[in-house]
Amino acid sequence: MKKMLLILALAMVSFANAQKGTILVGGNIGYTSEKIDREIASAKNNVFEFSPKVGYQFHDNWTAGVEFSVESSKTNLGEGEGKSNTFKTGAFVRYTMPLNETFSVFADLGAGFQNQKIKNYENGSLVSDNKADGFYTGLTPALFINMKKGFGLNFSIGGLGYETLSYDNDDVDYSKFFVNFGKTVNIGISKNF
User: Fold this and answer.
1) Sign (positive/negative) of CA torsion 164, 11, 19, 16?
2) What are the Cα distances from residue 13, in Å, to 21, 67, 117, 184?
3) How far apart are CA 72 and CA 149, in angstroms?
4) What is the distance between the alpha carbons of residues 12 and 97, in angstroms, rounded to a whole number?
5) DSSP, res 59
6) Cβ proximity of 51 and 68 under 8 Å
7) Once rounded to an integer, what is the mean pLDDT over residues 84-109?
8) Is the pLDDT of residue 149 over 80?
9) ∠ CA 173-181-133, rounded to 5°
10) Has residue 17 got a pLDDT over 60?
């Protein structure tokens, strides 16, 4: 089994020497591609995610704001194909602790509602159409490196979270708790306005 995982994340979030009263604008972009070859059939899964944020820095260390996320997934398995779209909207709070003029650490705590739509096709015909609603929460620690004139890089290697989904068509309730430190890598560019 061959597996390729590529995560590209760009974030335009906080700036280490940001001051009270500034606006935070940023987000992440991610892409994952996975391919599984088997003798009977092969599978391929592609996922694209975009997650913007807007916040207000009400204290030298604290920022609060809103976040939104769109994730689109397409899976091919033999004669079948699945398409999934997930939308999340919620709020976040961030605590930033400067270590010196170059380095800061921060943690984002976010929570909100999510909606998912899944369609499965076989030989080009729709065989199932499912919708679900639920909520999510997550904590993500990260490192900020101030490069020059307020621009910098953000690095995170995962976090922890919890999410639920309740499907309309079935009596299926889904919940997931995850800790993925070291499993994901996000690299971003930052600036406060």
Assistant:
1) positive
2) 15, 12, 29, 19
3) 35
4) 18
5) S
6) yes
7) 93
8) no
9) 20
10) no
Residues pairing with 178 in the sheet? 161
Model confidence at 124: pLDDT above 70: yes
Residues with Cβ within 8 Å of 84's Cβ and at least 6 positions away in sequence, in order, are: 71, 72, 73, 74, 75, 116, 117, 118, 119
Q: Is the dihedral of CA 36, 131, 87, 107 positive or negative?
A: negative
Query: Strand, coil or helix: what is 2?
Result: coil
Check: CB of residue 102 under 8 Å from CB of residue 146. Answer: yes
- What CA–CA distance (Å, rounded) separates 112 from 122? 34
Query: Using H for helix, E for strand and C for coil, what is the string for 136-193?
Result: EEEEEEEEEEEEECCEEEEEECCCEEEEEEEECCCCCEEEEEEECCCCCCEEEEECEC
> Secondary structure of the chain: what % helix, strand, coil (to 5)?
0, 70, 30
> Hey, what are 92's tokens?
């976040």
